[in-house]
Amino acid sequence: MAAGLYGSDAVFTAHMDAFFAGYGPDGAALRDVWLRPAPNPKLGDALLTQPLLFAVGQALGRAVAEWEGAPQVYLGHSVGELAAACLAGVFGPDEGGALMAARSKALGTDGAGGMLAVSAPADAMAPYATGEVAVAAVNGPRQTVLAGPDGPLDWTQLRLTEGGFTFMRLRSSHAFHSPVLRPAADRFAAVLGRVGLRPPQAELYSSRTARPVRADEAVRPEFWAGQLALTVRYWPALSALLDTEGTEPGLVLLDASVDNSLSAPVRRHPAVRGGATVVVPLLAPGTEGTPAELAAFEAAREQVLRSREGSPAQAPVS
């Protein structure tokens, strides 16, 4: 998770350190978990992984903003939406650590369960998203995630097998983005209510509404906290962004996910296939925690700078 940039990229390092300091007494231990080489079973604990995903996302964003011009549009997935909100100025980087510590505390033992990634469109999952099992995320045209308590989710697995679907159980101890997390969302909203939330200072797409966040929405604590219990509409949001802004040459899509999964579904989008949008991964899978990770990040910077110069070498990634 971008550990190879720590101690090498000054901006990234400074913002990671600030996050761990703001996280409170457990910040140093969380940093040690992050920096521990693989195998690292503690990263299977969502109460640790979620704040780290936020920290890495916002620190990468701050580092990218030091390039020639900050990003103009932000979109995040799940807890990454909070990182995007932080980068867009809804709340400050000095508040991120404390907010993520409060979010993990709000989660606690509520929402225990699991998640299933299914190779199917979201509408095909309607018969399976019943009772306590819900559509947790729409990640692509045929990438849908279901979530729910273990018992009902086990029953759903049997039904999916009978239906001939391909699916995989995700490594999650919580049924994120399902109704069972409503109590945790309410507790987190109470914490956000003590923060001076502000309208975004840059365009911010929401994976809750699949459109830009309005000023009146951004200042409501429940808008951000409620996403714990609601579907992540990442693919509809990304499609809306590309349909609106990807028709003119010059849009550069930066993928901050560790495994480049966030840009995978977009590579067949007409804006990318036609060359109007360029996809640039910030990290290279398999290089986590090594010097090669820094080299990949620097290569991404050079690719972005070339794309801004309109170099013919900047063909879309196919």
From TrEMBL:
Keyword Zinc: no
Transmembrane residue ranges: none
Keyword set, alphabetical order: Acyltransferase, Multifunctional enzyme, Transferase
Every Malonyl-CoA:ACP transacylase (MAT) domain range: 1-287
SUPFAM superfamilies per record: FabD/lysophospholipase-like, Probable ACP-binding domain of malonyl-CoA ACP transacylase
SMART domains found in the cross-reference section: PKS_AT
Pfam families per the UniProt record, alphabetical: Acyl_transf_1 (PF00698)
InterPro entries membership: Ac_transferase_dom_sf, Acyl_transferase_dom, Acyl_Trfase/lysoPLipase, Malonyl_transacylase_ACP-bd, PKS_NRPS_Biosynth_Enz
Molecular function terms from GO: acyltransferase activity
UniProt superkingdom: Bacteria
PANTHER family: FATTY ACID SYNTHASE, INACTIVE PHENOLPHTHIOCEROL SYNTHESIS POLYKETIDE SYNTHASE TYPE I PKS1-RELATED
Protein name: Acyltransferase domain-containing protein
